[in-house]
DNA sequence: CAAACTATTCAGC
DNA sequence: GCTGAATAGTTTG
């Protein structure tokens, strides 16, 4: 657990429901906008991949980077949140 | 401290 | 659309 990791977790947890951010975004909030690589590292090695919405973090190209449980799950969660958002919002 | 690793991103063709 | 180069932090020896 490092300061950078904590910052990354806070940034990721700050992502609203149904929303997605890029690693660069998280890295910037974490402190260094050029540590997107480290962000991925910290995310993949995060102590609690469940309490952290790491599935809301995707590549800048809108591409799925990776996921602890599998890319399919990540995509599924993203689509699920969008669908749920539509049901809740409108 | 140094080397290796990484769920990325930008630039050139 | 693909290939090559660059950045910053964690991890391991």
Secondary structure: elements and pairs:
Layout: H1 3-13, E1 21-22, H2 23-30, H3 36-44, E2 57-58, H4 71-89
Parallel strand pairs: 1-2
This protein binds a DNA duplex (13 and 13 nucleotides) through α2, α3 and β2.
Describe this structure as you would to a colleague.
- The chain is mainly α and 90 residues long.
- It has a single domain, classed as Winged helix-like DNA-binding domain superfamily/Winged helix DNA-binding domain (Arc Repressor Mutant, subunit A), CATH 1.10.10.10.
- Helices cover 52% and strands 4% of the residues.
- It is built from four helices and two strands.
- The chain has helices at residues 3-13, 23-30, 36-44, 71-89; strands at residues 21-22, 57-58.
- A two-stranded parallel ribbon has the order 1-2.
- Helix 1 crosses helix 2 (23-30) and helix 2 crosses helix 3.
- The radius of gyration is 13 Å and the shape is globular.
CATH superfamily: Winged helix-like DNA-binding domain superfamily/Winged helix DNA-binding domain
What's the CATH architecture? Orthogonal Bundle
Shape: globular
Number of strands: 2
* Discrete helix count: 4
Radius of gyration: 13 Å
CATH topology name = Arc Repressor Mutant, subunit A
